[in-house]
Amino acid sequence: MLPIECILRDIHDEVFRQDDWGVPAQYIPELATVSPEQFAISVCLADGQCLTAGAVDKPFSIQSVSKVFALAATLGRIGDQLWSRVGREPSGTSFDSVVLLEREKGRPRNPFVNAGAIVTTDALLSGREPKQALAETLGLVRAMAETEDVFINANVAASEKATGARNKALAHYLQSHGNLQYDPDLTLGTYFHQCAIEMTTRQLALAGRSLARLEAAPSVISRAHARRINALMITCGHYDGSGEFAYQVGLPGKSGVGGGILVIAPRVASIAIWPPGLNHYGNSHAGTRAAAMLTQATGWSVF
Ligand code: GLN
Question: What is the model's pTM?
Fold first, then answer.
């Protein structure tokens, strides 16, 4: 077996050899103009080492990867009460789909589709100002990554707000079924800012250590919650591409439309990958391939 550093270099070179990078998210103007031909991969191991290749210190918009942190914060605050408002089943639909919400009376399938993440953010607000809920999520991210150097990009949040008709529709639909405590604009404003957190792959891999239960990780998420979040990541973390991701990669993962993917090899490694172009599911195109190459080369799998 090659040392991990060589594997990462090979993956980096292989990604640059292929010419299909996918397309950056077009519906958020601030993300649409990001050049797709960029790549970074970071791997934190159980012994505390963090190995990297590519543009690992370049911050990118973590988008839906933030749903993992918001879920962890919400479970930490209200625990199982969340599940009275959100399910734990894969949706088989795209991340911004409205179709199941009508059939299932405003109870989103899981906390990783947009509707479920909006309800989770609404639950995290629980009587507080958006600023306080955001500070809690950002504070958790910073504690997990052991750095204060993680910020929200207000331009990205504003850009998404300006074009976020689909998410507005979802929020109003949730409200019509009594599954939103706050005004849709207030909850969505909080959600858009949470999605606009920027991190480097190095920081994201460091943040994932608590979910991987690595020994060197700060203990900010309970073991029980880490297990549950990993289960949801493998079943729902890539929306209607979750089955394919589990088949190709064999590990829990969470994607975002900024092109980032957080992948967890329980007790073995926390992995962050970023190339901004997306596949037709809205998951990172080259990132999914890179994750598959990594698990193929290392043999890491939960199966
Ligand atoms: N902020 C994005 C949205 O709500 C997040 C979606 C994603 O990353 N899949 O559309």
Answer: 0.97
Residue bearing the CA closest to ligand 1, atom 2? 63
For ligand 1, pick from 31, 62, 63 the residue to mutate: most ligand atoms within 8 Å of CB: 63
Which atom belonging to ligand 1 lies closest to the Cα atom of 160?
Answer: 1
Q: Do the domains at 4-61+199-298 and 64-195 have one common CATH topology?
A: yes
- Domains of the chain, residue spans: 4-61+199-298, 64-195
> 80 C-alpha to center of ligand 1: Å?
24
- CATH 3.40.710.10, applies to 64-195: yes
- Å from CA of 274 to ligand 1 middle: 16
Q: Is 4-61+199-298 CATH 3.40.50.10240?
A: no
> Quick one: residue 107, left, alpha or beta (phi over 0 = left, psi -120 to 50 = alpha)?
beta
Question: Cα(94) to centroid of ligand 1, in Å?
Answer: 11
Pocket of ligand 1 (CB under 6 A): 63-64, 95-96, 114, 160, 167, 195, 256-257, 282
pLDDT tens per residue across all 303 residues of the chain: 569 999 999 999 999 999 899 999 999 999 999 999 999 999 999 999 999 999 999 999 999 999 999 999 999 999 999 999 999 999 999 999 999 999 999 999 999 999 999 999 999 999 999 999 999 999 999 999 999 999 999 999 999 999 999 999 999 999 999 999 999 999 999 999 999 999 999 999 999 999 999 998 999 999 999 999 999 999 999 999 999 999 999 999 999 999 999 999 999 999 999 999 999 999 999 999 999 999 999 999 999
Q: Cite the active site residues.
A: 64, 67, 191, 239, 257
Q: How far is the CA of 299 from the centre of ligand 1 (A)?
A: 31
